[in-house]
Write a sequence for this structure.
């Protein structure tokens, strides 16, 4: 559904050329949710502007459902942009308009008949659970309710793609959960393709099917959550499943273990203790379900008369990803 190929964006600052995006390539299947993560200055905002044609890329292509948006004429940009619904960090509602009037605004801009506007607004407010707040002004709504109005407004043009730019970073944890649940539900209900720009790993873990790490304008890691977390040495996988602070060990050899799928539920450490006459102390650990797969990341201290190389070879043979801790 979304295909970005060799996207590049440069700016001129005096005599200097600044590269904000450098050869960005990614593909997001229809009906899935893809996360773009990165620190401040990584190029996330520039990517959003290029995807929505608020900025023309210097080179490269953005294709949505077979149509290359980056090839449309300037006179066709507004029509092409309607295929992308935009949800912002702050809802950016018009204070002088009610919730219903805010949702109606994009429909009014394209001169939709009044009866169709009223019907569509009622449908969308019902979809986001705000029917009873149709006549409320933004000052009368909570942060989560405002964001729901913003989502309904983004869906008014029946877009193929929903682009969410930091959609929950201004919300409290409970409201964040509600909004993420809503986005996930709408993805299935409306068969949307969703791109989430965020710096919050919790958002990625909660709703995304796949993820890309953007750094200095380049995508340096990319893939389904299971593949990303399973990748050896990947910084994105460690960020998605960080180890909590553990106790100080006793100077014995330490291993960092990543267990995936069935291995995460298998009695690997018990078998290790039995086979190698080993004492195994778990210093830190976490177990989570990401992208439909169960993962366990453990840092363990091992005391055994057998060589460490034999122990790591056994664990690798059992399907465990092993790193000897520094």
């Amino acid at each position: 559904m979304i295909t970005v190929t060799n996207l590049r964006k440069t700016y001129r600052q005096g005599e200097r050329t600044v590269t904000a995006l450098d050869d960005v390539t990614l593909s997001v299947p229809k009906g899935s949710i893809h996360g773009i993560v990165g620190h401040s200055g990584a190029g996330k905002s520039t990517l959003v502007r290029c995807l929505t044609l608020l900025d023309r890329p210097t080179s490269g292509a953005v294709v949505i459902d077979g149509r290359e948006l980056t090839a449309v004429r300037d006179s066709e940009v507004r029509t092409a942009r309607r295929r992308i619904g935009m949800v912002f960090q702050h809802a950016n509602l018009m204070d002088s308009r009610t919730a219903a009037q805010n949702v109606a605004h994009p429909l009014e801009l394209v001169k939709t008949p009044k009866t169709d506007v009223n019907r569509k607004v009622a449908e969308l407010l019902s979809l986001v659970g705000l029917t009873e707040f149709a006549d409320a002004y933004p000052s009368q709504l909570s942060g989560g309710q405002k964001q729901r109005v913003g989502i309904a407004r983004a869906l008014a043009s029946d877009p193929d793609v929903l682009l969410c730019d930091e959609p929950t970073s201004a919300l409290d944890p409970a409201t964040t959960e509600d909004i993420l649940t809503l986005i996930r539900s709408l993805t299935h209900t409306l068969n949307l393709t969703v791109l989430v720009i965020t710096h919050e790993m919790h958002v990625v873990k909660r709703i995304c099917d796949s993820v890309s790490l953007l750094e200095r304008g380049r995508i340096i890691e990319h893939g389904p959550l299971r593949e990303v977390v399973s990748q050896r040495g990947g910084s994105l996988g460690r960020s998605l499943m960080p180890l909590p602070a553990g106790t100080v060990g006793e100077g014995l050899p330490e291993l960092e273990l990543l267990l995936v799928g069935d291995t995460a539920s298998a009695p690997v450490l018990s078998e290790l203790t039995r086979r190698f006459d080993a004492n195994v102390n778990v210093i830190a650990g976490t177990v989570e379900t990401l992208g439909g797969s169960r993962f366990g990341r453990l840092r363990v201290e091992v005391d055994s008369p057998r060589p460490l190389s034999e122990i790591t070879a056994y664990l690798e043979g059992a399907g465990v990803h092993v790193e000897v801790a520094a």
The chain has two domains: 2-234, 241-324.
